[in-house]
Amino acid sequence: MASPIRILTAVPICDGHDSAINTINLEFIRHGIEVIYLGYHRSVGDIVRAAIQEDVRAIGISSYNGGHIEFFAEVVGLLRKRGATDIKVFGGGGGTITHEDAVAMKRKGVDNIFFAGTSLAEMTDYVRKHYGGPRGKRSRAKSPDRELAHKLTEIEDAYAARRKRPTRNAQPKIRNTQSAIRNTNVIGFTGPGGAGKTTLIDELVLRFLNQNPKGRIAILSHDPSVIGEGALLGDRATMINSQNDRVFMRSMATRGQAGGLSPATHDCLTLLARSGFDYVIIETVGTGQEAMPFQKNGIVNQTVLVMNPDYGSRLQLQKIVMLDLADIVVVNKSDLQRARTAHTEIEQRLEQNGRNQRLIDTVAKRHRDPGVDELFGLISDRG
Ligand code: B12
């Protein structure tokens, strides 16, 4: 079986019209496409960086701010500059992009523009027809981001085809891989959906970038999907600080695997851990009580369970396996009313384990939150 088509969608800078792209995303997903949604108000640089790292087949831009001719052309131009001409550009923008504009845009390298009144089925058919065939042979990528992105795709494709093991080409060419892994701090984040894992990670990334002016960080982020079906890979849309050239982020769909990660995760994580990053952060999908996603991934140095104060009664805590396993437990959204009770109840639960696990309260949505500072101190300490 082939991997699902992966595309990236976004709304340009100075544009908050996201209603059309939200509908289109859902239709793409319903038709088996994996959509990495970058969100609105996104710059050319952010879009091209994300598309290269995610190794998508095409970028779909929804534009209503009036600057479409220049914006689309700049996206095409930057892709060319970065050697990523295999990534195509298409889009729409109802009442704002005229037929004459579309002609000019196509002349500048845009594949297609969809006008008001086009049916969702037409757009989906277009994507499947034009971006769904096998990828042609690609020349060797000259930039590190592209090379890494291609190798991650090879690993995912190998698993999708049930070859199980990645191809030899997907193995990283690093002489001393063991010492490369030793120098990389790999941290696993898990927890229920809506606890704020992505926002928390984004705040930690900010602290890392500030503390290490030359350091690089990788994020491997997961969202759920059924095997052979589409998925909304939306973590990038909540990320602000992670839109940075020193951050390599890859979004993965679980492709039918339960437990929070994808069948290809272990190999992708190993590749990232060997690729010279200072930190690799791995984020699971929103997990349930039984999940212990990092048990099989021997290269994760520390595990962080991010909880929402609203987990129900104290009894529920007895059933959450990760409370036994996590090195650090975070009660995020600790500004909520129930957070103090949650802290006390979780503290008592952790005491039963006798493992010296750390418990930290955070408000990840708040800038300069002291709880996030404390968490950053702990994970950078490595233990
Ligand atoms: C809904 C809307 C809003 C909503 C947006 C809600 C939201 N979260 O998206 C609200 C009310 C908030 C809003 C606000 C504003 N809006 Co407004 N808005 C519209 C409106 C009426 C419809 C746009 C829309 O969503 N259409 C529904 C989609 C599904 O259909 P469609 O646009 O026809 O798109 C088709 C294809 O193009 C294709 N398509 C679209 N995108 C993509 C992407 C891909 C990848 C693909 C494959 C296909 C595709 O899908 C559709 C298929 O039929 C348009 C008028 C118009 N007719 O376009 C104005 C319009 C875009 N807005 C306009 C303006 C000026 C504003 C404001 C600046 C107003 C103000 N002064 O505050 C603000 C700016 C908001 C911001 N932060 O950017 C202007 C823009 C003018 C310009 N650029 O020259 C327009 C054109 C209205 C006008 N005639 O003046 N707006």
In short:
With 383 residues, this protein is of the alpha/beta class. It has helices spanning 19-30, 44-54, 68-81, 99-107, 120-131, 144-160, 177-182, 197-211, 235-238, 265-273, 314-318, 322-325, 339-353, 370-381, and strands at residues 6-10, 34-37, 58-62, 88-92, 112-114, 185-190, 217-223, 231-233, 247-253, 279-283, 302-307, 328-331, 358-361.
Descriptive account of the structure:
By secondary structure, the protein is an alpha/beta fold. It has 14 helices and 13 strands. A 7-stranded parallel beta sheet has the order 9-7-10-6-11-12-13, sandwiched between helices. Strands 5-4-3-1-2-8 form a 6-stranded parallel beta sheet, with helices on both faces. β1 (6-10), α1 (19-30) and β2 (34-37) form a beta-alpha-beta unit. The radius of gyration is 21 Å and the shape is globular. The structure holds cobalamin. The site of cobalamin has 28 residues, from α1, β3 and β4.
Blueprint (SSEs and pairs):
Elements: E1 6-10, H1 19-30, E2 34-37, H2 44-54, E3 58-62, H3 68-81, E4 88-92, H4 99-107, E5 112-114, H5 120-131, H6 144-160, H7 177-182, E6 185-190, H8 197-211, E7 217-223, E8 231-233, H9 235-238, E9 247-253, H10 265-273, E10 279-283, E11 302-307, H11 314-318, H12 322-325, E12 328-331, H13 339-353, E13 358-361, H14 370-381
Parallel strand pairs: 1-2, 1-3, 2-8, 3-4, 4-5, 6-10, 6-11, 7-9, 7-10, 11-12, 12-13
The structure holds cobalamin.
The site of cobalamin has 28 residues, from helix 1, strand 3 and strand 4.
